[in-house]
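Thread amino acids onto this structure.
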């Protein structure tokens, strides 16, 4: 699994101007670049804190944080859709250039391995906090366990010291890492979310890419008649089916419908025409038997593998999918990305996609080697390390115009690049999943019940609204707002 999970203009919301800047930034990518795709000092750390005395080196123009030669860096990376070879390449370069060796851990058990370390006050120095077992960023922030990354973002860029690091990033990509106005997680990978299909299967069956929900249901119906599931989803992780539901809501009701949910509006779900239309559309797939048989009980990789075996026409996912399924994908599968088809009367066009940054990297406020961790993150946002990532992980980072033209893309990732260019400034991104993990979990639980036909759309709306209303009672929620 990749990650759930947009700079920074002082507001967590992504305005139209930022979206236009983003599309312009994407247009600057010299060759089809990487995947548009796969969690503070505030309350706990101090931006000037440098950890133990044995990690303090001499500060210089090329070493602004005083990362100390001979010190060690403890790196933990989520080993999911992007693997962890990119991090090993970074660590090798870090050791070569700065003389700092790394202890590397690649794992999917982020919570299991790291929660005891956070609780014990001896966390790693830098963490890719992602995956199904992610430690929720908002929880870590509230516990005062995250470094405010402003010092890194305001440091000089490796490639152009006359610029701050933050000014080299695709506009909007810092937003998902914000808590109460502070960037406490660096979402490193530029991601798109939506539907996926096999170009080979569609060609064989004579199906065309559906642009309306009616056409989508027609493909599902035809697939069912041939013994193929219409839609697969990763049933044990209802985050994935919420990609479809929430995309439909945003495209039907426009950015206002999306912001109503993020801003905890009393009519975010109950009383929202867009929310009702979105959930009823997905429930129609369930009612008509268009789901891939068994999909509700499968993990993400199990569902995705059956989809790779042509047992379903569509699947919902983020753009880490191709990387995650490399070993299971037939060589002639021809993986393709598809924006969510439109419901009647939708305010956003078909080309509109959910896009932004994913895969959150964090620096714990109690990290032992804070100078080394800050310098490591600064170098992550260099063209050299961004290209290293692209070569190993087949994906685009949040750095503008960042990847060497020699890097070639696989078909699925290439299709996300094309989709992003077609979308232009018509991109959107929910932030409630980063701001309010408890609310997000409640909405996922409701979706799980919906897909199993244990509740109807009306009850789903009621449960989601209850989750919004509960979150709105927390005074801290007033510090997060989208304009």
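Threaded sequence (483 positions):
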């Amino acid at each position: 699994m990749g990650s759930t999970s947009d700079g920074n203009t002082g507001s967590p919301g992504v305005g139209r101007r930022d979206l236009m800047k983003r599309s312009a930034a994407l247009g600057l990518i010299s060759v089809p670049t990487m995947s548009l795709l796969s969690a503070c000092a505030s309350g706990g750390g101090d931006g000037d804190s440098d950890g133990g005395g044995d990690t303090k080196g001499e500060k210089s123009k090329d070493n602004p944080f005083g990362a100390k030669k001979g010190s060690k860096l403890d790196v933990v990376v989520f080993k999911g859709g992007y693997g962890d070879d990119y991090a090993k390449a970074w660590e090798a370069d870090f050791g070569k250039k700065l003389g700092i060796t790394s202890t590397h851990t690649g794992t999917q058990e982020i919570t299991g391995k790291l929660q005891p370390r956070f609780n014990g006050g001896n966390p790693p120095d830098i963490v890719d906090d992602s995956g199904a077992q992610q430690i929720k960023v908002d929880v870590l922030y509230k516990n005062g366990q995250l470094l405010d990354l402003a010092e890194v973002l305001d440091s000089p860029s490796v490639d152009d010291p006359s610029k701050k690091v933050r000014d080299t990033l695709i506009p909007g990509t810092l937003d998902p890492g914000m808590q109460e106005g502070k960037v406490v997680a660096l979402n490193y990978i530029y991601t798109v979310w939506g539907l996926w299909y096999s170009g080979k299967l569609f060609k064989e069956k004579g199906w065309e890419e559906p642009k309306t929900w009616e056409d989508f249901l027609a493909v599902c119906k035809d697939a069912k008649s041939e013994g193929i599931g219409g839609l697969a989803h990763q049933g044990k992780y209802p985050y994935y089916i919420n990609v479809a539901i929430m995309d439909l809501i945003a495209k039907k009701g426009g950015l206002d419908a999306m912001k109503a949910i993020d801003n905890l509006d009393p009519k975010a779900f109950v009383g929202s025409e867009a929310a009702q239309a979105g959930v009823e559309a997905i429930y129609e797939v369930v009612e008509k038997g268009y789901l891939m048989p068994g999909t509700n009980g499968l993990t993400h990789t199990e569902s995705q593998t059956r989809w790779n075996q042509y047992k379903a026409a569509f699947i919902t996912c983020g753009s880490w999918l191709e990387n995650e399924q490399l070993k299971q994908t037939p060589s002639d599968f021809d993986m393709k990305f598809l924006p969510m088809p439109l419901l009647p009367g939708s305010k956003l066009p078909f080309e509109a996609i959910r896009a932004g940054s994913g895969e959150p990297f964090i620096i714990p406020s109690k990290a032992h080697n804070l100078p080394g961790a800050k310098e490591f993150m600064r170098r992550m946002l260099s063209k050299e390390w961004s290209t290293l990532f692209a070569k190993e992980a087949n994906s685009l980072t949040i750095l503008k115009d960042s990847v060497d033209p020699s890097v070639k893309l696989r078909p699925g990732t290439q299709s996300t690049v094309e989709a992003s260019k077609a979308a232009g400034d018509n991109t959107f991104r929910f932030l409630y999943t980063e701001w309010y993990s408890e609310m997000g979990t409640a909405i996922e639980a409701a979706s799980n019940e919906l897909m199993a036909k244990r509740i109807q759309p009306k009850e789903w709306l009621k449960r989601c609204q209850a989750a919004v209303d509960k979150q709105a009672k927390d005074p801290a929620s007033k510090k997060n707002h989208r304009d």
